[in-house]
Amino acid sequence: MAELMNRQIVLRRRPTGLVQPADTELITAPAPEPAEGEALVRTTYVGIDAAARTWLNDQPGYLPPVQLGEVIRAAGIGEVVASRCDAYAVGDVVTTLTGFQEYVISRDDIFTTPVPGPDVDQLAVMSVYGPTGATAYFGMVGIGRPQPGETVVVSAAAGATGSVAGQIAKIAGARVVGIAGGPDKCRAVVEDFGFDACIDYREANLHAALKEHCPKGVDVYFDNVGGPILDAVLGRLAHKARVVLCGVISSYLTGEHPGPANYVNLLSKTALMQGFNALDEWGRFEEAFGPLRRWADEGRLVHRQTIFEGIESCVDAMNGLFTGANIGKMLVKISEPGGKKIPS
Amino acid sequence: MAELMNRQIVLRRRPTGLVQPADTELITAPAPEPAEGEALVRTTYVGIDAAARTWLNDQPGYLPPVQLGEVIRAAGIGEVVASRCDAYAVGDVVTTLTGFQEYVISRDDIFTTPVPGPDVDQLAVMSVYGPTGATAYFGMVGIGRPQPGETVVVSAAAGATGSVAGQIAKIAGARVVGIAGGPDKCRAVVEDFGFDACIDYREANLHAALKEHCPKGVDVYFDNVGGPILDAVLGRLAHKARVVLCGVISSYLTGEHPGPANYVNLLSKTALMQGFNALDEWGRFEEAFGPLRRWADEGRLVHRQTIFEGIESCVDAMNGLFTGANIGKMLVKISEPGGKKIPS
Fold first, then answer.
1. For every residue of B154-210, which 3-state class applies, written as one string?
2. Whose CA is closest to A242, among B266, B144, B268, B249?
3. How does pLDDT run across A205-220, given as a tens digit for each residue?
4. What pLDDT sits at residue B118?
5. Tell me, what DSSP letter sits at residue A2?
6. CATH code at A218?
7. A64 touches B at CB < 8 Å
8. Does A296 reside within a domain?
């Protein structure tokens, strides 16, 4: 058989701001041969997460920076096409750190999870029954703890995590107000994801809008953005509020994190602000997936995707996350799901 | 008998920064007569807390601002000199919001607590078995939750709350590093209060000193000051750190709260920052006083005071809190404890 080739996007130069053409290169290399204990996975979808952009900066984080010359790291989903380990069989669907590439070696390690069933809805896995859904679940349920009648605010509400987090708060009986950029997203937040209201931060006076939509203050704030939006919501906290820090997308491009002066309200309101990372809960993901599956089956939890096509569009998709191009989970389709096995 | 006169310090003008002579006035008025259900208390000590300065600003808080013409509000301790209620007998020692005055009417309401025994150590009550001790206890035990071997940092470590909070962390088995201003305070923090080390923020490069004293990061930070010190400690957080927000003394004079840019470490370190107010735990104060008394009896918890003399010095004492005049609890002695009953 012809040698299996692997197209990969590698980092050539650390970007500042949006990723420029010269920052990355699309190269072609032979696909790796799985060693004993390994499997070869063909990537079907790569997930585009804001965190992946931070890995391109030379800053320590919960995962080390991507080094120059390395494939750009990203969480994705794929299908096992060759296996030399007991954990996976050819045809299995797995989520793993695929990176921006067509084939990846997978081990039965912490970041690889087999997905039950061959006919699994891979879009649903990437949007709900994977790290994105677990992030929304553990952040909202574990830290936010919305109670019936409380007011919950979610930023980046049209995004992958925010849209799920807000729906979880609705299911808990809270009144849920989204914050998003532009009329299309705000419409999706209310009409598709069922939030009670959505503030367009590009148009509205944020302070006035928060006062209007949260007259009794904000009991739970699920923050994906940081910056001035975080500061504005901190200025509206209710007594004993919980602020869930899930992301700081406003600063990922610049590396600058302006401090929220209204943090002092945490003191006057006896409130809590807590950062979290769903990877810390890796061993407990099934605790999240059970309720998420049930709610989805009951029609109470919907998911949407914005899908770019082809490995060539990975960088555009990553940049699009910061220019507001996506509603729901941002994905790049790398190959067709349900693809054939490699002829041996 | 001659009419009983009550010297009081009232607010005449809202101060900006330190309290100026023209901001207050010492007046003399007849002491109030207790009505049915009330008692008259002669103030022995007034406690000087940073929060009291915030009540002079025209800003809403957990208590309303002191109005012009009103006696300056402060928590203190005193002795019942006349009683027309069942809750208190003449000679009882009570803690209450005495304010800056010699006599105050007391009711059996939420802010008045009788202190058991006639021979009670009133200095100990003001320093440990009262709101100050409860603040240190509920903040450190309830939110900080220091574990053996962890590293705990306490700012304003020589102050009333910080000195107790740090000792509680020591008792819990943590390594405790104080931050204080000046060599005298730092010496007291280590030698009197038994902290493992103390950083003089006026002399040290705070970032370098935190790195030196907290090589594995900061697991618990008990913050009394806010501002650049909070930001510096946020920059050294350990994984799953807890930041207890107890006060923002750096901003009480100016009303300005610069936002801590390193709040973003709450996210990367999966850490928590929580504000609290011991008044929220009013009904549970005895949960704190039990352990605090036991530790004090065992000699593991010491307290110190800085005592000004006479009602005329209340404003100086309040200003002194912001210029660094106190080690331990700042008090003004208004009258002699164990004083005689009023002849009837």
1. EECCCEHHHHHHHHHHHHCCCEEEEEECCHHHHHHHHHHCCCCEEEECCCCCHHHHH
2. B266
3. 999 999 999 999 999 9
4. 62
5. P
6. 3.40.50.720
7. no
8. no
Pair (A33, A107) in one structural domain: yes
Q: Residue A169 domain-assigned? A: yes
Residue B156 shares a structural domain with residue B228: yes
Tell me the shortest Cα–Cα distance from B231 to chain A, in angstroms.
9
Cβ separation A257–B245 shorter than 8 A: no
Give the per-residue pLDDT at B339: 64
Together in a domain, B141 and B90: no
Residue of B nearest to A275 (CA): B267
From A41-45, A146-150, A274-278, the region with the lowest mean pLDDT? A274-278
Residue B344: pLDDT above 50? no
Q: Chain B residues with CB inside 8 Å of A57's CB?
A: none
CB pairs below 8 Å between A and B: how many? Answer: 96
Residues A99/A74, Cβ–Cβ less than 8 Å: yes
Interface mutation target, options A233, A249, A264, chain B, most CBs of B under 10 Å: A264
Domain end point (choices B279, B295, B325): B279
Tens of pLDDT along A8-59? 999 999 999 999 999 999 999 999 999 998 999 999 999 999 889 989 999 8
Could you tell me if A163 and A215 lie in one domain?
Answer: yes
Same domain, B67 and B163: no
Residue A278 has pLDDT above 60, yes or no: yes
* A 235-254: CB under 8 A from B: 245-248, 251
* Shortest CA gap B200–chain A (Å): 24
Whether residue B114 is found in the same domain as residue B152: no
- What length does chain A have? 344
pLDDT at residue B343, rounded to an integer: 41
Range of the domain at B75: 5-124+304-333
Please give, rounded to a whole number of angstroms, the shortest distance from the CA of B265 to a CA of chain A. Answer: 8
Q: How far apart are CA A111 and CA A99, in angstroms?
A: 12
Instruction: Mutate one of A231, A263, A284 to test the B interface: name it (highest B CB count within 10 A).
Output: A263
pLDDT band at A343 (very low <50, low <70, confident <90, very high): very low
Q: Is A59 on the interface with B (CB under 8 A)?
A: no
Q: What is the pTM of this model?
A: 0.90
Kindly state the tokens that stand for B135: 């603040």
Using an 8 Å Cβ cutoff, are A68 and A12 in contact?
yes
Q: CA of B246, closest CA in chain A: separation in Å?
A: 7
Contacts of A61 in chain B (CB under 8 A): 268
Cβ of A226 within 8 Å of Cβ of B264? The answer is yes
pLDDT digits (tens, 9 = 90+) for B202-255: 998 999 999 999 999 999 999 999 999 999 999 999 999 999 999 888 877 777
- Output the average pLDDT for chain A: 92
The answer to whether residue A266 neighbours chain B at the CB level (below 8 Å) is: yes
User: Collapsing DSSP states into helix, strand and coil, what is residue A7?
Assistant: strand
Asked if the C-beta of B227 comes within 8 angstroms of chain A's C-beta atoms, the answer is no
Q: Are B303 and B329 in contact (CB under 8 A)?
A: yes
Closest CA to B264 of A250, A270, A18: A250
- Domain-embedded: residue A297: no
Q: Is A288 a member of any domain?
A: no
**Contacts with B226 from chain A: Cβ below 8 Å:** 264
Domain final residue, candidates A263, A279, A295: A279
Is B116 in the same domain as B139?
Answer: no
Domain count, chain A: 2
A325: CATH: 3.90.180.10
Q: Which of A259, A275, A280 sits opposite B260 (nearest CB)?
A: A259
Evaluate if residue B196 carries a pLDDT over 80. yes
Residues B136 and B257 in one domain: yes
Share above pLDDT 70 across residues of chain A, in percent, rounded to a whole number: 95
User: Which region among B41-55, B67-81, B101-115 has the lowest average model confidence (pLDDT)?
Assistant: B101-115
Determine the angle formed by the axes of helices B206-213 and B227-234, rounding to 10 degrees.
40
B258 touches chain A (CB under 8 A): yes
